[in-house]
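@channel sequence for tomorrow's demo:
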Amino acid sequence: MTAVSTPAPHVRRRERFGSVGSTNDVVRGWLGAGEPEICVAVADEQTAGRGRNGRTWTAPAGSGLLLSVGFRPTWLAPDRVWQLAATVSLAMADAAETAAHLARGSVRLKWPNDLVIESGVEPAVRKLGGVLGETDGLGTDDPRAIIGIGLNADWPERAFPDELRPTMTSLRAVARDRPIDLSALLDGFLARLDEGVDRLHAGQFDAQGWVDRQVTSGRRIHLVLPNGTTESVLATGVDRETGALQTLTAGEDQAVGHERSILVGDIVHVRLEGL
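structure tokens (generated this afternoon):
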């Protein structure tokens, strides 16, 4: 199937829920019932929120921005559908910086699916949010893509769970306990999402913005593989065409080694060395 250029739709359905199992499941049901893109489900609380590979995503009710976006990407070639999740991530990163009055570039992307904050406080990289992309029917006449995102927004640092405190953060914590307006954050995200999807429809993807925000580039990382083994590599960058992580397998001498491209399906988890 080839991509078909059509006018970009803006959000046609947007609903907010007090509590749902998973916003991804809500949007999947809408698409299955024939809802056109773009549709957005927002929840104050998820009781069965999930991340990649069956991980869970939880946050106190009203403390985070929890939503899913549904697309019917007949207009996007199957090997470009990964750009939808990247565009969603970039829109949220930019909106988050505005909502928390942060400098541009403060919110980074940890390949493949995390939004993080890099700071001088150890550990230097802390998780701010996660993205879960799910697809059905790619390569058919009825492709569907669901991009879920959970962002720790108005969550005071004093309320962080002890077991997560060393590795997580929130916009409110980064903003020195300044309350975060979730409605303004959502509106800012949707406005930026519209712009990003407009560009995708025109055959333009903000590849440079996506590359620039990658926190993994230039760092040693540990790849957790599907067979349970762990491999240490140097992350050298990301591929603008495929979305793959580019790595160098090397010993102590980082100047030599085997170059390799890693796709999302090749790994279970990515850990930054030392974290």
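heads up for whoever presents: Residues 182-201 form the longest helix (20 residues).
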